[in-house]
Design a protein that fits this description.
It is built from two helices and eleven strands; from the N terminus they run H-H-E-E-E-E-E-E-E-E-E-E-E. By secondary structure, it is an alpha+beta fold.
Length: 206
């Protein structure tokens, strides 16, 4: 009787440990680490890019991190962007060591565009959408023309400049957050202006 009880207890403990392990293995198989996002981008590029510059973004007050990969080797006159959403295995949700990513979005400019843009809504770790949106501007910047950008938005009917970003790398990602209504403020995108090293305006997006 004692031996049988021992086997039952052992079986229950093994099952309790085994099920989370299965879920963990499934989670790992369907997600990727930071280095894996580069491989995914290189494997799925439509412009035959080889290298991708990485940028990370975490919405204010949120646990979820996003990673952006923009083609950086100027193999094409077009720019290409991959967006990855951070995901967590729930028992280790607050541990950055367990942070992994899954593919979220792909974008590609046309031949004439120096800069591309994507409007997207960040999500929390449960997959729930935020109440505001982000605009992501990206460029492979093949001629190294762009070194600075300025964003203009409208907040409750008043125009204001909200960003003045120095772009220190050739390929870049610039993010304009909190578009929509938040804390009683309605923010709308008006325009983004991009300048070269001499301060000349080379691209405007409205």
């Amino acid at each position: 009787m004692k031996k049988r009880l021992k086997w039952i207890v052992t079986g229950i403990i093994s099952l309790v440990l085994f099920i989370p392990l299965i879920y963990l293995l499934i989670f790992i198989s369907k997600t990727m680490n930071s280095a894996g996002t580069h491989k995914y981008s290189a494997d799925n590029t439509e412009i035959h890019a080889v290298s991708f510059e990485a940028a990370r973004y975490r919405p204010f007050g949120e646990e979820v991190e996003y990673q952006f990969r923009v083609a950086s080797d100027a193999m094409s006159t077009r720019s290409e962007l991959f967006i990855f959403q951070g995901v967590q295995f729930d028992p280790f949700r607050k541990s950055r060591e367990w942070g992994r990513f899954r593919f979220a979005y792909h974008a590609l400019t046309n031949e004439e565009e120096l800069v591309g843009s994507v409007l997207f809504t960040p999500r929390d770790y449960r997959g729930q959408k935020q109440t505001t949106n982000c605009m992501v501007f990206y460029s492979s910047n093949p001629s190294n023309q762009i070194s600075r950008c300025i964003f203009t938005v409208e907040e409750n009917g008043e125009l204001c400049t909200v960003e003045n970003i120095s772009l220190t790398k050739k390929a870049f990602v610039a993010i304009l957050p909190d578009l929509g209504e938040k804390d009683g403020v309605l923010r709308k995108f008006v325009k983004a202006e991009f300048f070269d090293l001499d301060g000349n305006l080379v691209e405007t997006m409205e």
